[in-house]
């Protein structure tokens, strides 16, 4: 890991434009060598980090496109006369076991396991086939030879190995691979299912919060994740701002939580929007497994798994929006689901905001910074300048006032390299990759 | 100051109906009066906004359940608070004052919808809320640039409860009824009110707009009246005057559904398309319907334009 002071300066390194479609998910694999993005059109694009070049030892390798494939297609539910969007909601990598890479990608209804493999050799010297594939007339064969493998240009193939379908009535919002590397969970608004990676025609329902009478529905599941080390433990968050930790050893159906994490509401801040802004949009365990982080509309909270009553740390992402909640409700921005992520050693957390801003919070040094992912405002290879939002009074130079924020430019998806200070930030159609300045 | 329709109702009827000579506990109306007017305004407009959001359809894709639940909870919260400070009762009475005939509309609506949904779904009617949600209750705004209001009239048409398991019960997106049932005090009256209010598509009065806000107490009536498919008044005086001239029969569900009956296989998606494109394909058999739709489209253009 590089320096602890992440804010020494983030350098804009590679700017990848994806003009085709809105990016809907970003995920590094376990080594950080591969970065997968999913988009609204059902496509997955995987970037690979180039090996460090000898010419520029101070610079890590660039990320270039490695593979592109169509993961999901739009479907039509004939029973309901509704389209099923092909938008990729989540991608999760499996830990690598052999030469091939595997990832799970999901849309609203169907999860697919993809195998991404490289081919850099091909057999040559067939007896019955010409090099171009045409068959030879057997009568012309006079000698026999053994075909050999010859190197060829690298070809990356993505093939669907499993399709896990028809298990979700509602929209899938999360998938999470278990630490046992054999099972994974998928969560929709009301249910969580447990799958075995090898078995596609069966899944176990482990959480079901659907009320017998749908008229009584007041709460939905918003995110779920397996514990990074304990294969029996998972958490799921709700639209009411609660997180439930469940132990699969306790019972087959984990409707009874083992722990429930909820912070009491601040009576001073009570409004009609209190519930909406308390809805948790993302939950992520720390790499250590000791903490978990939740993202609600205005803040990021770090919870110690041993303490259910309140978070141990709370970071305000954009508190200046609290007075604008009514407008944000009107334009639906209040329902935006921001994600959050940890850095490799759990010392820094990051999340997105509006105006193409994203925020980092250093837990140890109690510092935070606002940066902007925008081509106009920073030149490649330059250090990102911290941004500041002016919350009231006189606006200083270089500050931006709350009213000039562009709420259409939202950063919902961010990812942090598991081992290095490299981050991937997705704006609406563009993917930015930043690394911190070495030396 | 107040949202247009509601205010007129109140000012038209003068002071709140509770006699001023009441002793002891302050009358609900008095409490309402003492409530900060700007707070009431905000609360009212929030309620209106929430109801619109719940009604607007995402015609193509299933609605976002989380969003719908959160909005519905917000509505419930407002309704509870308004019930506590008595404002809800005032609106109830205001609504009761605006009685409308035309029972036939309910029947038509129900029948048309049942035919349509049955044709699509090919299944026997299920309780509304389950169907509404599992079959994708279209309670989310259509994703279109600009004015959400554009979609109000068109989209709300397809949010009608597909089945009415009980005659007068027209629940909201999740069938809010039971949640509010304990607050009912006038059980019998409500049934009548509900039917009446449902049918108040009518008469081009401001009373129609009041249905959004001047709903009777229960949640089912809130959503039931809203499903008359009348757009909520945007907080814009110019627009509101525009509406006052409009013949609300444009929003007559029956008119559009007449066209719908000729194309029973149309889903909500098709309905939206046919409305927005003057119904060249689906409604070809109903010329009167088409002219209504032309005018409807004209209205929509005005709304979007402003």
Structure report:
The complex is a heterodimer of chains A (439) and B (306). Chain A is an all-beta fold and 439 residues long. Chain A has helices at 274-278, 325-330; strands at 10-17, 23-28, 34-39, 43-49, 63-70, 75-77, 82-84, 90-93, 101-106, 111-124, 148-164, 174-177, 183-187, 191-196, 204-208, 221-226, 233-238, 243-247, 259-261, 282-285, 291-295, 299-304, 313-316, 340-342, 348-352, 357-362, 367-372, 388-390, 399-401, 413-416, 422-426, 430-436. In chain A, strand 6 and strand 7 form a beta hairpin. Chain A is globular, with a radius of gyration of 24 Å. By secondary structure, chain B is mainly alpha-helical. Helices cover 58% and strands 0% of the residues of chain B. Chain B has helices at residues 4-12, 28-34, 37-55, 65-84, 87-97, 103-121, 128-134, 150-156, 177-181, 187-199, 206-213, 219-226, 237-245, 253-261, 268-276, 287-305.
Please describe the structure with a list of short key phrases separated by commas or semicolons:
heterodimer; A: 439 residues; mainly beta; 42% strand; B: mainly alpha; E2F-SERTA_domain_protein (chain B)
């Amino acid at each position: 890991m590089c320096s602890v002071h992440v804010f020494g300066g983030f350098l804009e390194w590679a700017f990848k434009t994806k003009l085709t479609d809105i990016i809907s998910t970003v995920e590094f694999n376990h080594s950080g060598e591969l970065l997968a993005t999913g988009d609204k059109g059902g496509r997955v694009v995987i970037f690979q980090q180039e090996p460090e070049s000898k010419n520029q030892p101070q610079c890590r390798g660039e990320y270039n496109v490695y593979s592109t494939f169509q993961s999901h297609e739009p479907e039509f539910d004939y029973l309901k006369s509704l389209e099923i969007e092909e938008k990729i909601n989540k991608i999760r990598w499996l830990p690598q076991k052999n030469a091939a890479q595997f990832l799970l990608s999901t849309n609203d209804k169907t999860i697919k396991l993809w195998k991404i493999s490289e081919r850099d050799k091909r057999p040559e010297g067939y007896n019955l086939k010409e090099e171009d594939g045409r068959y030879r007339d057997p009568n012309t064969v006079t000698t026999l030879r053994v075909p050999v493998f010859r190197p060829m240009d690298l070809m990356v193939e993505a093939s669907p190995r499993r399709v896990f379908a028809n298990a979700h009535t509602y929209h899938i919002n999360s998938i999470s691979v278990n630490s046992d590397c054999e099972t994974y969970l998928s969560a929709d608004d009301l249910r969580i299912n447990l799958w075995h990676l090898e078995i596609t025609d069966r899944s176990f329902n482990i959480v079901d919060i659907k009320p017998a009478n749908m008229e009584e529905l007041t709460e939905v599941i918003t995110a779920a994740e397996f514990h990074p080390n304990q294969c029996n433990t998972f958490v799921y968050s709700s639209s009411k701002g609660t997180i439930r930790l469940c132990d699969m050893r306790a019972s087959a159906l984990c409707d009874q939580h083992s722990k429930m994490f909820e912070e009491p509401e601040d009576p001073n801040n009570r409004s009609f929007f209190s519930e909406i802004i308390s809805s948790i949009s993302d939950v992520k365990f720390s790499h250590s497994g000791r903490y978990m982080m939740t993202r609600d509309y205005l803040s990021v909270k770090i919870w110690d798994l041993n303490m259910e009553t309140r978070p141990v740390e709370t970071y305000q992402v954009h508190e200046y929006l609290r007075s604008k909640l009514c407008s944000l409700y009107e334009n639906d921005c209040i329902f935006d689901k921001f994600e959050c992520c940890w850095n490799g050693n759990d010392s820094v957390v990051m999340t997105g905001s509006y105006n193409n801003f994203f925020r980092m919070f250093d837990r140890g040094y109690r510092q935070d910074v606002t940066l902007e992912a925008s081509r106009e405002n920073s030149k490649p290879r330059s250090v990102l300048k911290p941004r500041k939002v002016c919350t009231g009074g006189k606006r200083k130079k270089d500050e931006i006032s709350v009213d000039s924020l562009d709420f259409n430019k939202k950063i919902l998806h961010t990812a942090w390299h598991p081992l290095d200070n490299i981050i991937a930030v997705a704006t609406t159609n563009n993917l930015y990759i930043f690394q911190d300045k070495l030396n | 100051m107040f949202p247009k329709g509601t205010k007129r109702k109140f000012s038209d009827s003068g002071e709140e109906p509770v006699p001023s000579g009441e002793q002891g506990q302050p009358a609900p109306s008095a409490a309402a009066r003492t409530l900060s007017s700007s707070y009431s305004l905000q609360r009212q407009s929030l309620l209106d906004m929430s109801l619109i959001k719940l009604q607007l359809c995402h015609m193509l894709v299933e609605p976002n359940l989380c969003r719908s639940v959160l909005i519905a909870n917000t509505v419930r919260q407002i309704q509870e608070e308004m019930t506590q400070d008595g404002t809800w009762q005032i609106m109830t009475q205001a609504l009761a004052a605006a009685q409308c005939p035309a029972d036939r509309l309910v029947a038509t609506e129900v029948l048309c919808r049942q035919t349509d949904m049955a044709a699509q779904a090919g299944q026997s009617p299920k309780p509304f809320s389950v169907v509404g949600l599992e079959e994708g209750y279209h309670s989310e705004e259509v994703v279109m640039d600009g004015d959400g209001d554009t979609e109000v009239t068109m989209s709300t048409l397809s949010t009608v409860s597909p089945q009415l398991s009980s005659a007068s019960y027209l629940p909201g997106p999740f069938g809010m009824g039971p949640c509010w049932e304990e607050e009912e005090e006038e059980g019998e009256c409500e049934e009548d009110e509900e039917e009446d209010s449902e049918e108040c598509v009518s008469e081009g009065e401001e009373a129609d707009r009041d249905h959004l806000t001047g709903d009777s107490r229960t949640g089912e009536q809130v959503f039931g009246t809203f499903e008359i498919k009348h757009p909520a008044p945007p907080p814009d005086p110019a627009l509101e005057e525009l509406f006052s001239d409009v013949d609300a029969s444009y929003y007559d569900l029956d008119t559009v559904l007449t066209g719908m009956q000729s194309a029973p296989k149309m889903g909500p998606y098709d309905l939206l398309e046919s409305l927005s494109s003057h119904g060249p394909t689906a409604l070809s058999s109903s010329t009167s319907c088409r002219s209504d739709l032309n005018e409807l489209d004209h209205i929509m253009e005005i709304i979007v334009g402003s």
